[in-house]
Amino acid sequence: MADLSDYRQVLTPNYDVPPTIIVKGQGCKLYGQNGESYLDLAGGIAVSALGHCHPDVIKILTEQANKVWHLSNVLANEPAIHLAKALVNATFADRVFFCNSGAEANEAAIKAARKAANELFGNEKYEIICFDESFHGRTIATITAGGQPKYREGFGPMPEGFTHIPINRGDILERTVSEKTCAIIVEPIQGEGGVRPICPKFFEKIRKHCDRVSGALIVDEVQTGMGRTGKLFAYQHSGVTPDILSSAKSLGCGFPIGAMLCKEWISEHFVPGTHGSTYGGNPLGTAVAGKVLETINQPELLNNVLCRGEQLMQGLNELNKKYKLFKTVRGKGLLIGAVLQENYAGRSSELTTLTMQEGLMTLVAGPDVHRFAPPLIISASEIDDALTMLNRAYSHFKKQP
Ligand SMILES: *Cc1c(COP(=O)(O)O)cnc(C)c1O
């Protein structure tokens, strides 16, 4: 049996050592090495949208595993074509590029926007406008786009042409966007940055300024997409249409897959030789994601996201009347963040430790936010159970550390 001292020895030390080893998942439950069980409101960081070991997903995965796993991009496969068609039918997009993660989807988005701008307007139009506190992945280009300087420290030099501004500041946006701007990249709700929703009016302004300078609007829906907010993609709550959208996380419900969706005016510059991925669009991943999309994009499931989200948010607000830990509870659907009061700032990880002791998996979103991103199939009684455990966990939070 592997244990955590092995973990400490042989894995690179870039993550905190987890408190336990999980050996099995079923629905919204996880089970540890010693038989202990947890209710999962972390969902593998907004990934396990259909919970663990969903029977339909297991079925399609094993069926495809018995046919063909991998072909590379020199050959075509049916599941990739089906999935691309389904994504195009369900969204603004004309075409889809497949890859293996959120960061790769954003890399593809940035490269596609740059290529289109370069060919349409010349090599001066390369600037990507990004937002403070945003998160777009951990590759060099995506930490450059991200708005959290700590992720860039020690990894320089960074690529050029990325400008950061605060969200929800129309005046700054207006004077920053120029003819040099090739794209604006934005999360509808900043996930890692603290479950911080963008103001709808500001989202419309971003679209308007992209149009003003013929720039591309890249919407990063790696965390907010695939039903997380109660629509298939969060941009669909608004009247704003992206030019490019990145998806990953819940797209594969745990099978690594990413996708970059885009309009024709972008994709027509992605000609043979311009971009690629060996694994991207492999039949195993696309078969799984095809079933995931079909299962999530149903009115009953999306309605469950909204109802359970409201239930959880209401319950958190009730608990907060009792414990007064948070200054606000925000988010949409089943992406919810409880923001610690100023006097408890920096202590969000104590909350995840406390909930785990009660048998509940939760997340942080930065040092000040207690985050919840459960499977979208979670039931009303499971949310009630979670709130009971949260009540106990919050009661143990030491107001004077
Ligand atoms: C998680 C995340 C990413 C990065 O996805 P990876 O699969 O870890 O590369 C990018 N953007 C957003 C908004 C995310 O939440």
Give a written overview of the molecule:
There is one protein chain. With 401 residues, the protein is of the alpha/beta class. Helix content is 37%, strand content 18%. It is built from 13 helices and 17 strands. The strands form 4 sheets. The chain has a 7-stranded mixed beta sheet with strand order 4-12-11-10-7-5-6, sandwiched between helices. A 4-stranded mixed beta sheet has the order 1-2-3-15. Helix 3 (55-65) runs antiparallel to helix 10 and helix 12 (348-357) crosses helix 13. The mean pLDDT is 97. Pyridoxal-5'-phosphate binds at residues 101-103, 106, 135-137, 187, 191-192, 220, 222-223, 248-249. Residues 101-103, 106, 135-137, 187, 191-192, 220, 222-223, 248-249 line the site of pyridoxal-5'-phosphate.
> Strand arrangement, largest sheet?
4-12-11-10-7-5-6
Largest sheet report = 7 strands, mixed
DSSP strand (E) fraction?
15-25%
Straight-line distance between termini: 37 Å
Which residues form runs of ≥5 with pLDDT under 50? none
Shape: globular
Estimated radius of gyration: 21 Å
Instruction: Give the proportion of residues in helices.
Output: 25-40%
- Provide mean pLDDT, rounded: 97
Oligomer: single chain
Number of strands: 17
> Topology as H/E string?
HEEEHHHEHEHEHEEEHEEEHHHEEHEEEH
| Secondary-structure-derived class | alpha/beta
Bound molecules: pyridoxal-5'-phosphate
Q: Helix count?
A: 13
